[in-house]
Amino acid sequence: MAKTGDRSRAVPGSPLDALPFALDRTSPVPLYYQLAQQLESAIEHGALAPGNLLGNEIDLSARLGLSRPTVRQAIQSLVDKGLLVRRRGVGTQVVHSQVKRPLELSSLYDDLETAGQGPTTHVLRNERVPAAADVAAALGVAEGSEVIVLERLRATHGQPVAFLCNYLPPDLLDLGTQRLESTGLYRLLRAAGITLHSARQTIGARSATAEEAALLAEKAGAALLTMQRTAYDDTGRPAEYGTHVYRASRYAFDFQLLVRV
Amino acid sequence: MAKTGDRSRAVPGSPLDALPFALDRTSPVPLYYQLAQQLESAIEHGALAPGNLLGNEIDLSARLGLSRPTVRQAIQSLVDKGLLVRRRGVGTQVVHSQVKRPLELSSLYDDLETAGQGPTTHVLRNERVPAAADVAAALGVAEGSEVIVLERLRATHGQPVAFLCNYLPPDLLDLGTQRLESTGLYRLLRAAGITLHSARQTIGARSATAEEAALLAEKAGAALLTMQRTAYDDTGRPAEYGTHVYRASRYAFDFQLLVRV
DNA sequence: TAGTGGTCTAGACCACACA
DNA sequence: GTGTGGTCTAGACCACTAC
């Protein structure tokens, strides 16, 4: 028989029972999303400890007054984030390790700002030029056609961190030098209604040329971290092509990955 | 009125109509997965060109004899892969740009092998040692407790590419030096039943020390690409901690990203 | 044998985009 | 308006795991 109401079993598995989930059906926020957020914060705050079982989806949905697919959608979004693991026949558990950031297509400006570094930007160049071969190929325009070139020096605490060279299709928008100095390029693109969708990146290293060394306050020959990136908007159109060099002594790429399944 | 059967409209949007979808309900492969694969290969082969609309989900499910949620699940999986874009009120479209690889937690060995480079590995060290502080912290074991240390030199075409230093919990498995020389570490872990789940990575650069230069056939002071990684299994337990250095002249990290939504 | 997640169905209503 | 995807429901049966 079903053991409904049988407290003697004293299941240790589900601290979820004590959690006060509050779902607001009048809110425009989807129910599965409300649930996912509350589960995530419960994990974040330790109310759901690593290894804890969530309890089966049927009971959970009954208790929350939601249908099972809705509950599954919430759980699935956290599985995708790497916070939960499902095992058929076993249950859904909180992952042990701390997963924080999946790799994001983030701008250097945002990275530094998030790290509390108070980045500053100096625009060295902002003009329209004929596209060189590599730029034309990356942006999908004809060689020699006009593109915007942007050269910026980024610093934190008064010390240079990176030299950024970016190319943009000419019709996208005109970027005010002032605005470029007060925020990041990606934020400007987003504000202009361009939603980035994907990007192709290459990260490498090389020795600094004399010019780069001078710009970045390094010695000639110092190791630099390099990144080339082409970013595409959600129609698949190239929105930006950039070649960046970072002082290896002051910057590194740091991120979390989930294994493809 | 509905325009069912009205051919005069000559909708140009859905080349999907001509596609021969074959769903096998007796197969153990889920229906949504069968559909997703066939859609993906249609995109791959150009039967569905970039910008093409898929046609609405209701009609599609009716035509395929599937329910709408099942069709949505198939479409969603391709959206997650970055092949399709959905727009409410508009439809589902094939993305223009070629999206190939999302960033994977791949091993260097696999990377090189995929690139047809025929990698070789020389094991320099494979023994048990007391864990140093950083290693102990990364693997979540006590400082001074026994761990496996692995030092390998990887080459392609007879030229060194990278020096790999890895640490593993001692109870995981014993790695035969022979097997290590014939395949990648991650493949061995997988074969031992360890499924990797996530990893934390830092990619940076620095100048080569004299020893590194000698090992990698570079000049002292040459720019090297560095990577530190801690990989976790699906219970969140650290499975591997590694510090790798790559010859910048022969290797770079190359990958595709999707923007988080 | 019992319990779990994995898959699937056949509907419903809503929010948003575009003409 | 009309059509699209976004969300949600209330069931069903299956496959796998553990006991």
Shape of chain A: elongated
Task: Kindly estimate the percentage of residues of chain A that lie in beta strands according to DSSP.
Answer: 25-35%
> Unreliable stretches of chain A, pLDDT < 50, 5 or more residues?
1-13
Structural class of chain A: alpha+beta
Question: What is the radius of gyration of chain A computed over CA atoms, rounded to a whole number of angstroms?
Answer: 24 Å
N-to-C series of helices and strands of chain A:
HHHEEHEHEEHHEHEEE
How many helices of chain A? 8
Termini of chain A, distance in Å? 38 Å
Helix content of chain A: 25-40%
Major beta-sheet overview of chain A: 6 strands, antiparallel
Number of DSSP-assigned strands of chain A: 9
Oligomeric state of this protein:
homodimer
Give the largest interface: A-B, 52 and 52 residues
Q: What's the rounded overall pLDDT mean of chain A?
A: 83
Strand order of the largest sheet of chain A: 3-4-5-8-7-6
Protein name (chains A, B): GntR family transcriptional regulator
Keywords (chains A, B): DNA-binding, Transcription, Transcription regulation
Domain HTH gntR-type (chains A, B): 29-97
Model description:
The structure is a homodimer of 261-residue chains. In chain A, the strands form two sheets. In chain A, strands 3-4-5-8-7-6 form a six-stranded antiparallel sheet. By secondary structure, the first copy, chain A, is α+β, with helices and mostly antiparallel strands. Chain A has helices spanning 31-44, 57-64, 68-81, 108-114, 133-139, 177-182, 185-191, 210-216; strands at 84-87, 91-94, 120-130, 146-156, 159-168, 196-207, 223-233, 238-247, 253-258. The longest helix of chain A is centred in the N-terminal third of the chain and has 14 residues, at 31-44. Mean pLDDT of chain A is 83; it is low at 1-13. The first copy, chain A, is elongated, with a radius of gyration of 24 Å. In chain A, 27% of the residues lie in helices and 30% in strands. Chains A and B meet through strand 6, strand 7 and strand 9 of A and strand 6, strand 7 and strand 9 of B. Chain A binds a DNA duplex (19 and 19 nucleotides) through residues 28, 30-32, 56-58, 66-70, 72-73, 86-92. Chains A, B: It comes from Streptomyces asoensis. Chains A, B: Keywords: DNA-binding, Transcription, Transcription regulation. Chains A, B: Pfam families: GntR (PF00392), UTRA (PF07702).
